[in-house]
Write a structure and sequence with these properties.
The chain is mostly helical. It has a domain at 29-71. It contains 5 helices and no strands. The chain has helices at 2-6, 9-26, 31-38, 42-54, 58-70. The chain is globular.
């Protein structure tokens, strides 16, 4: 609810898209397949991949939580 109050619908959609592509990258899906499936550019996928590898660790933290929750 907080994010819905703070962000526009377009910004929320962008966050959702980013999280989806991060999960797909983490699962080992090829970048071109992700780009086609989500309808986004390869550059967006590459940017997400760089953040996953070299970011501050936020994506990794929540991916670990997600993996634990699925078990």
């Amino acid at each position: 609810m907080l994010l819905e109050d703070m962000l526009t619908p377009q910004e929320l959609a962008s966050l959702s898209e980013r999280w989806q592509l991060i999960q797909k990258l983490d699962a080992g899906e090829p970048q071109r397949d992700i780009a086609e499936e989500l309808g986004v550019s390869i550059s967006k996928i590459t940017r997400g991949s760089r953040m996953l590898q070299y970011g501050k660790g936020g994506f990794g933290y929540f991916l670990k939580k997600l993996h634990k929750a699925k078990k």
